[in-house]
Recover the amino acids of this structure.
């Protein structure tokens, strides 16, 4: 019962507020910031917030509200009425309200909103009298009816109409019918009388379709709207968005009820959205869009192309459009002042919404603005330089995903010069993308599943398109601005996106679009330059990398000063090694010796390997190994040379041998001939290698135990390569790594071989010693459990979390397709454990392995070389678990450097 | 240096000894018992023991002895000389010595022995003078030369001659040449002069073959012999025996040097071995064999068929042979007295060796006698009844393997009546065996590896045959007695064995044997009745089980009184359930629902299952499941009925679906037709089910999550079957078990289904509730690690240690053939972890799972249902880990009952 006494309704407005910006978990981002703004003296329409606790209780209690909520709302409403000097439901001086969602983390467009609450047959005349604008009032009533019938009476009631049969579509149909009848093109051309007539038609239609009258009681409207917003937390779109963004279901949303202010009451009214800095570039200029005589939704929906906020950010596309700075200079100055106030207060870029009613500015919302990667890096650097924030805050200001964006492909500028431009649009998401054109979200998903790269082309996107946008390489819309749905979503994901390419004619039904005299059909390739906003015909070559971005380099240097975890790269070739070094790798954490049997120039060594595999005596194997040896040594020597002075971990042969045996009849026959055996004998030997579960079969150290001569050859190649570097006075630190270990005795066996070969190679090269280490992968659960024993021999551990995840879960990575999507969908697992390290299960084995290993050998060097080594949350886990380094593919090295720095900041020791 | 001060040489004899029976680890079994016997006043030839610590140091220090050993030996030798009133190397009154191995655990025939040490050109005349038996002395010298040249000069020196070219064979060749030249059949027919001449020939041959003279210095002979015995610890045979018996390499052997006494100095001399009770039946009668005028090796080697010890144990085969009781009544009485003394002292059946020299009895050895299973059970029961031992000792007296022997197959007596008897032999190993005849150890191993059941037929066996004996179903020899090598080894393993079938003519080279007018060729089937000693032509049917053995039942009742761990059985059918109950199972720990799709009468349900699997919509699956449901319900109902009143754990579908799809083209075509789809469509659907690593694929609960309707059908079948029992007033306790769990959310999902179906079934059968439990397999490492979470939902855990072992080691059970033998051979792993639970690794996860599960749910019921549940050391581990029950196949239930009782005794709380 103690819970009941907690405040459920938080008021704000009139320079006061119950809440503040710290209370995001309880009030949601929007509510907390409205409270904060009210306290700061920013002009905010008064209102109140129903907390996320109310949401939780609502869901936990079968849609029933906590007792006392009704009274609290009514009481707080009175305070709002007092500030606004108006009364909700009053026939003469009616207050109108809005009801909006507000979660802890912004979910743009994913939940519901109802505006103009409180318009009824009784209050309409009063508002007409007060505003003197009959058309505005009937239009507001039309909007209320459209929204309310859709959101409250249909969706929230759980009615699922057939595609295109929803009340929203039916009312829009009536609107279009009316426009056609009146011979007008736009809504704004309908008169007050038209709209009044439409209200009657709407009411009839609503009753007919939904079997219920449109409510004429203001309180019924208010509670219906509150209800619908709470319920929209579990709407299909919101749930799908949460899955993608990893937002927990149990957070819930708050509901903000606020006095309505109108940007569409006449020409002295306006509405707009703005960012305190440019969210696409990070440039420190006040950036935004506005529309005169409009409601907020008109700007965000992307239906009307909005005007630029000021002159300094005006783009070529906005030529001829009026800026707010010019149109309403006084209001603009006030707004610019608020911009400075808010950024100083919040010490971060803000995303704000405002409305101007009769020349008076109202701030509807401020929140930390979403930005893309390049913008995040630039802002962090500039705010650090201007001392608005310190280094540790700067490091936290760029998410690993944002940093990753900077590594996104860009269109090759040379190729771009000669390419055929179809059209230009707004550069909403940077980087380049190329792919085949599709016109629906469903097709984008389907084609992508089949492995095609697609560009999703739409007139405009809406929240139903989220899955398709996710699946696409890039997004192109013909309508909307930089704050349209498509732009916001794409920026959040760092996805290449061009919006508002108004010259394009998109024919979704006909599955084609045209522009610049070119017609592009479904499946045709196009290329987007999301940084410039250019759309090209055909597939252009891409460049990957940020070698030339000084901000990127500067930002990562800040990270390097903070982080303690070393970052290595996984590299099999000198090229990989060079790329890794360029991205800041401090060594190689995984060199797969088997790489040389794949890809280019592998023919000769592969033949020797196959010969070795298909030999049936140790003598024959040794002969084949002797021929293979020079290739292996040369290969390793190249990489050691590229990484001179840095540690290089070289893993002995890992895959089961049958992976190298050709399947094809022709190739087998050729091989048999070269080996001097019959095809039948070769087939028999190859078949004998077949395994039921190869992942858990005869591989890794198990090969080294049964065929010690194979390990021996590799060890000799490594130590001889190192010896040759030493003779050339090049420093080298090879680390010999034994894979697939499950018992210390396996390592003992292999370490003995290393000892023996080391002595032999030293003698051959006349050296006293060749500095090297011998260690092991920890990738089998038993190895983690018995790490104390293993550390008696191992000089280093490298966690192979790919295989460790496979065995800890009993998931074959090759076979999870049959159930993993269901597991994520049904919430059985929070994420794909092969992408994000499972800290609760696999993480226990990692921690156990480190603790036990260090209990025997306190200075044991420990790292990770699985794919997780480049995934930010996993890197942080590795830092916290006490690893010395992570190792990942070259392109993930920057993210690992950032995540390692953030881990230090997050532990609070920086 | 403190170590050096430890005694290295322990003397015994003359009624005194440094050591005692407790010191087996240091003195070996033989040495400890010689010391104990000496202290008991039993007449033991004096001598001394070099400790196992000396052996350890010998191996740890490159074959160098600890300093001071030489002096200690010389000093102690003086004491022996004093007791014997003879001097080692003395020309007039020479003392001869023996050097024998003695490990902590007996390894019969696996290490080396040298006798008659001290015979040289200087001492031979003295001994001839003293014994007055020139022939005996030259024969002793011949034996010394044969043994010493073989054991010390060849084997111990690491010389590996070609097959049949060893010095032993070459000297035997000379002996045979001499016999031929003299026209005699037997060694004993050679005269003193012949043997004297032979000594010259031997010396020449030895120098010629081994490039060294036979040593003529007694101390050189002594140290050579000590050396050879220590070295034989790492001989090929000994190592191979240790692998089979699980004896650690680091134990080492002691060496016993003892004054020689001679059973072959004349007709007043004899030698023999005896058991204080019959080791093959357990009967409380003094049982043994002896030979007049012979050395001990003559009895054990099985070359001469020995005489019975006494009249009461005389068998039909021994008709006409003299018993010691009759031949030397005084000595026999003394021996019988010592028998009583030793059994009272050691409180266990003793295996003794004795020699009679000139009518004087010397006890050479006493040790706990090996016995077969039936004998072990009978002795334990009878010693308990006579209060020689208490119940907890009785329970420890039968090893799980011995108990298992009682469950060995026996020949069907009806079939036996009509079978063709080839011959009769000595019943050395009980039970029946049938198989194809092979004539060499190598063939036995090869044929068995290919899956054949073989009977190894030999004239006599020797330690080189151990591997083949292991591989064979049964062993048959034409020579040797109940204490011959074949008999001892077979009894130790509980293997069916017949020895001394003297009427058989075994032609090893010709690969055939004949007897009773029948010739049996390699590959022909024969049948042995090892309990009776009968050899039959052809393959006779076997009966398994000990239903009729009251000692077995009585013994297990004693176990049941002591044990706390419950024992259940794994059973898929009413027949299995009945068998389990008969063996004492207290419930079913694992009923595999998929069993009904294998084996007899599975055609109809299998068709429905395949239909379900190859359906492509939920609706089609549900239709097939509806048709499958009655089969599943009927099946479960039968087993629940058979186990009325006892808990039955029913596991939901476990294998991946593709296991049920037929491979054959014809069968697929048939199935496609029945399903109304084309073969192409069927093939496509079947191919889509293929998995790279099926063990870690779409199986178990993963099927239940993706196809909840499959789980639902099974749950409904279980609860409906239970409901029908309840309606018939039959008590039933179904436990629904979810397999392959890796996360609590999977269990939540399935438990919800159970809840829903339970409500529906209750309604259908008009019951208030159907008592049941919902639990899970813990067989995935992650489930063990997150057991605390899982126990929030699970009402019981059942450890599936087969899969848990697979994933903890990363060993695919189907694929370990490629490396596991090497792993065992090279000592990387101590045992096959699928047979013996790996307590150090897998055991950690089991303990973790139990502890964490109980931390959430203190009364959580915990069991095991893997193959380990019937393996004794694993059962003991389960007891110690705090499990409530183990479950195993019906035939392993008795072993589990015994092991569970032994676990209680071993923890000392009984």
């Amino acid at each position: 019962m103690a819970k009941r006494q907690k405040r459920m309704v938080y008021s704000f407005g009139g320079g006061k507020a119950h809440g503040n910006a710290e209370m995001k978990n309880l009030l949601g981002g929007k509510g907390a910031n409205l409270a904060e703004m009210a306290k700061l003296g920013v002009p905010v329409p008064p209102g109140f917030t129903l907390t996320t606790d109310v949401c939780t209780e609502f869901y936990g209690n079968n849609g029933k509200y906590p007792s006392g909520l009704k009274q609290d709302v009514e009481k707080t409403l009175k305070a709002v009425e007092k500030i606004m000097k108006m009364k909700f439901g009053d026939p003469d001086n009616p207050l109108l309200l809005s009801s909006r969602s507000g979660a802890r983390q912004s979910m743009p467009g994913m939940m519901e909103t109802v505006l103009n609450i409180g318009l009824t047959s009784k209050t309409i005349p009063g508002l007409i009298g007060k505003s003197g604008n009959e058309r505005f009032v009937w239009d507001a009533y039309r909007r209320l009816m459209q929204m309310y019938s859709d959101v409250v009476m249909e969706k929230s009631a759980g009615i699922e109409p057939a595609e295109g049969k929803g009340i929203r579509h039916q009312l829009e149909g009536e609107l279009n019918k009316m426009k056609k009848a009146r011979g007008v093109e736009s809504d704004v051309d309908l008169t007050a009388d038209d709209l009044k007539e439409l209200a009657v038609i709407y009411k009839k239609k609503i009753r007919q379709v939904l079997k219920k009258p449109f409510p004429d009681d203001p309180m019924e409207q208010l509670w219906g709207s509150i209800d619908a917003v709470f319920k929209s937390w579990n709407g299909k779109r919101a749930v799908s968005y949460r899955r993608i963004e990893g937002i927990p279901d149990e957070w819930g949303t708050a509901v903000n009820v606020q006095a309505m202010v109108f940007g569409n009451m006449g020409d002295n009214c306006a509405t707009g959205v703005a960012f305190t800095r440019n969210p696409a570039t990070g440039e420190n200029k006040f950036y935004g869009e506005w529309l005169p005589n409009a409601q907020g939704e008109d700007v965000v929906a992307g239906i009307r192309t909005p005007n630029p906020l000021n002159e300094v950010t005006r783009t070529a596309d906005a030529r001829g459009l009026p800026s707010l700075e010019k149109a309403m200079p006084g209001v603009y100055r006030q707004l610019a002042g608020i911009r400075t106030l808010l950024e100083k207060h919040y010490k971060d870029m803000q995303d704000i919404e405002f409305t101007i009613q009769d020349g008076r500015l109202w701030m509807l919302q401020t929140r930390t603005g979403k930005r893309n990667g390049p913008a995040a890096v630039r802002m962090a650097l500039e705010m650090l330089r201007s001392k608005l924030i310190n280094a540790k805050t700067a490091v936290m200001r760029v998410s690993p995903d944002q940093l990753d964006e900077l590594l996104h492909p860009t269109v090759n500028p040379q190729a771009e010069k000669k390419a055929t431009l179809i059209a230009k649009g707004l550069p909403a998401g940077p980087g380049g993308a190329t792919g085949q054109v599709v016109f629906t979200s469903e097709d984008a998903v389907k084609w992508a599943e089949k492995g095609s790269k697609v560009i999703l082309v739409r007139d405009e996107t809406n929240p139903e398109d989220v899955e398709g946008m996710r699946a696409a390489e890039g997004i192109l819309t013909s309508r909307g601005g930089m704050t349209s749905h498509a732009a916001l979503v794409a920026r959040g994901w760092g996805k290449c996106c061009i919006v508002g390419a108004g010259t394009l004619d998109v024919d979704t039904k006909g599955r084609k679009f045209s522009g610049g005299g070119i017609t592009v059909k479904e499946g045709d390739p196009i290329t987007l330059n999301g940084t410039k906003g250019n759309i090209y015909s055909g597939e252009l070559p891409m460049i990957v990398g940020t070698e030339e971005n000084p901000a990127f380099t500067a930002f990562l240097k800040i990270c390097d000063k903070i982080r303690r975890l070393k970052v290595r790269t996984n590299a099999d070739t000198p090229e990989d090694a060079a790329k890794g070094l360029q991205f800041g790798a401090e060594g190689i954490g995984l060199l797969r010796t088997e790489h040389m049997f794949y890809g280019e120039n592998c023919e000769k060594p592969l033949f020797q390997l196959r010969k070795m595999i298909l030999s049936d005596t140790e003598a024959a194997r040794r002969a084949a190994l002797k021929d293979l040896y020079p290739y292996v040594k040369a290969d390793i020597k190249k990489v050691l040379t590229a990484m001179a002075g840095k540690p290089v971990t070289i893993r002995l042969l890992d895959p089961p041998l049958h992976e190298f045996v050709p399947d094809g009849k022709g190739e087998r026959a050729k091989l048999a001939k070269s080996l001097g055996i019959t095809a039948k004998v070769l087939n028999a030997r190859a078949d004998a290698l077949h395994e039921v579960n190869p992942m858990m079969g005869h591989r890794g150290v198990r090969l080294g135990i049964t065929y010690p001569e194979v390990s021996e050859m590799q060890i000799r190649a490594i130590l001889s390569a190192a010896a040759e570097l030493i003779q050339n006075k090049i420093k080298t630190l090879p680390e010999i790594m034994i894979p697939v270990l499950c018992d210390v005795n396996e390592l003992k066996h292999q370490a003995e071989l290393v000892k023996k070969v080391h002595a032999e190679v030293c003698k051959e090269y006349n050296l006293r010693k060749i500095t090297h280490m011998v260690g092991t992968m920890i990738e089998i659960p038993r190895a983690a459990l018995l790490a104390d024993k293993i550390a008696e021999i191992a000089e280093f551990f490298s966690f192979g979390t790919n295989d460790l995840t496979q065995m800890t879960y009993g998931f074959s990575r090759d076979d999870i397709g049959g159930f993993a999507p269901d597991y994520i969908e049904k919430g059985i697992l929070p994420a794909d454990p092969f992408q994000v390290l499972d800290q609760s299960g696999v993480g226990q084995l990692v921690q156990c392995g480190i603790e036990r290993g260090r209990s025997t050998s306190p200075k044991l060097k420990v790292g990770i070389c699985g794919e997780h080594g480049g995934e930010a949350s996993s890197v942080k886990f590795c830092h916290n678990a006490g690893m010395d380094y992570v190792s990942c593919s070259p392109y993930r090295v920057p993210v690992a450097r950032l995540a390692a720095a953030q881990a230090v900041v997050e532990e609070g020791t920086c």
Observations:
- The mean pLDDT of chain A is 91.
